[in-house]
């Protein structure tokens, strides 16, 4: 971090803070626009001055907002002002694009400056040969640590942890600990806890810095340390790590290897990113998007969206096949063709409501095997109640519209059936997928809407065929 | 926190960690089942023993998983073991239910023990009279702080912050600071930074505890402190606060009043909850659910889902009205009625994909006015490319199915039109809503699917009427 005073001048505009909340922090659209103009004008001085004033996280946002050509130009002009930190804040797609344009030596330099988890991210995106080339250019010590990091599976604690940490023996006192810290080199950049270890380097407790600072020098570490701690096995999934930090409000936690020895630590700021990522993944998957493709190329984006649409085409054709069995009924009573989409659409929406709640509750572990039955019964009842209300509404509308009470009865009955099915399917399908280790966020939606479409059409047209013909 | 050793016995099962990842931490379904049985058997001793072994966050989960009757019974049996912390971890709906059953004096006792932000949450749920009754029972000092907290708007920094913090003058040295901490009373429970203030109590920098601990006693605070800091106005929206913490990787930040004086601090653990809440809100709203209703009563849940379904009924009827203009065409060529839902369904899915990416990108500020045009053009092209591919697929399927090349051409053309519309609407609608200060997560979906439904039906049936009749 730079030592330039950057405290925001709040005093200057004490009354306008509330109104301008959105504009107080973060990258400003006007700044982006201006830098674009400077780039077009090749105004090197102004560009360098603007970049120098921005926080690394905001420079990352700026780069994301520029077109590829402007990005390259910016880096050419202000490469020395764009610190390694900027790369750790960049969107994956954009970072990959930038790294692709770099020479091996440049990548090695970048990797060398990045924090371990970010360095591994950059290397992980490279082809195997290029990865090896970059590793060969790194100083031996750093290379070993990074190679070990790469050996852990993606999205596990091993990838998230940093190796630098502070560990002290239980028999030290606070004074010794503070003296050690004042002399020590290679301390982590930010840390909130000191780990207390036994002679085998197994963690036996933690000493939060605030506790340490508030204790007198002669107090033994063993007296103020917390013995209750949550250890993280190095292979633990990052989603599980995020759960642990949230559930027990941790600021940092020790990572242990298979024999239980302390090998790293994870701090809450790394976990904040994981929580966002995991929530983002659920949102996108529920919307039928497999990955964040905002900054992806057109062809790449079209490709990632294609699979889901193909599945949907198949299910839509399936629904049409179901409809085709009732073509005779529709030919006789064309009102059926007109009203047909309503029941399916209402079922789809009711099912989506339930499955959204279910998917989220599974992710946050509020919905588990032990309360499944109660919640399922509740959802079925909710669906039935709303089904009845909407049956009355649509029944009356259809009756008035087509002047035929029978059509009203038919659509009302189909509505109750389909909304009940929607409520049950919206809960049962995500639970079943989860049990079979399939991410409910990615697959629930297609199953539920296929069911509500087909049941919607078949119930309505089927009941109509029986009653009206 | 208890002083009982609770380090997990990893050594006992070093090889099974990976397989049992899911079961290592958090509440176990078997435990819930067992406690249910004990509750039915009135086995007070076993229940108390089990509860005593659980972390407060896990007790909260346990209570959420029980039925209302079991909940009351559990609290009757183990009230003294259920600490105030449990209430801060409870789901809002469940906590409200439990607090509703308490006497005023009990609520006052709970509020008194809770941390400020949680105490305010509990009081905020109460009726105005009851709130006043509880406030009257609180010790004067605590009452004043809570009343001030209540005066800040919900979901703002004022509600999130805690009042306890450590602030020191710039001219102190590290030794003085440590001495002060060792003597001070009323320190915050957890803190990561000391704030450095000027004589008017305006923040001028921060001193991270790790920096303080690693510095020698005679070093002046002004030499090691960070002058670059992000100040949070007390009225700032919590979403903005979360953005700030994520963007600049903060561990804590100073909250200032309108004249710029330091009045509180927000720590990253409070922000972790906000990030989850805000992401959860987006997920639920995109799914047509206005609030997390997993633990809500049946009628309450049916009511919250009703509005969205009513809107959907209206748009579904609108689509049917559009279809009804083409009843003559469908009577002549019944294949039109059979194929009709496919184009609308594909458009709905393509539109949902785009709007999901857009809503998320707006929330994370990756999509702003400055890159809107580029992204919109990209989405339109993506939609066009996939539209063409799916047009060919469905055109061939329809041709083969109905043995009529014209039907194939008609549906193919309609598909391109509707998918292009879907891609554009999926991007333009969330952006437009955001500009008009309407949450794009809550309203985009209904607008986009209404458009894709109606355009889907009208394009297909309209082109068919022109070509086939």
List its salient traits.
homodimer; 469 residues; mainly alpha; MgtE N-terminal fold; CBS-domain; Tetracycline Repressor, domain 2; 3 domains; 3-stranded mixed sheet; 23 helices; globular; disordered N terminus
Strand neighbour order, sheet with most strands of chain A: 1-2-3
Report, as a whole number of angstroms, the end-to-end distance of chain A: 78 Å
Sheet/helix structural class of chain A: mainly alpha
C-alpha geometry of chain A:
globular
Q: What features would you describe in this structure?
A:
The structure is a homodimer of 469-residue chains. The first copy, chain A, folds into three domains: 10-155, MgtE N-terminal fold (Alpha Horseshoe); 167-272, CBS-domain (Roll), CATH 3.10.580; 298-468, Tetracycline Repressor, domain 2, CATH 1.10.357.20. In chain A, strands 1-2-3 form a three-stranded mixed β-sheet. Chain A is mostly helical and 469 residues long. The termini of chain A are far apart. Chain A contains 23 helices and six strands. Residues 1-23 of chain A have low confidence and may be disordered. At the A-B interface, helix 1, helix 2, helix 4, helix 13 and strand 3 of A face helix 1, helix 2, helix 4, helix 13 and strand 3 of B.
Quick recap:
Helix content of chain A is 67%, strand content 6%.
Task: Give the topology.
Two copies of one chain form a homodimer.
Chain A: H1 21-24, H2 29-41, H3 44-53, H4 56-65, H5 68-78, H6 84-89, H7 92-100, H8 104-113, H9 116-125, H10 128-137, H11 140-151, H12 157-160, E1 167-169, H13 174-183, E2 193-197, E3 203-208, H14 209-214, H15 221-224, E4 232-233, H16 238-247, E5 252-256, E6 262-267, H17 268-286, H18 298-324, H19 327-332, H20 334-363, H21 372-402, H22 405-435, H23 440-468
Parallel strand pairs in A: 1-2, 4-5
Antiparallel strand pairs in A: 2-3, 5-6
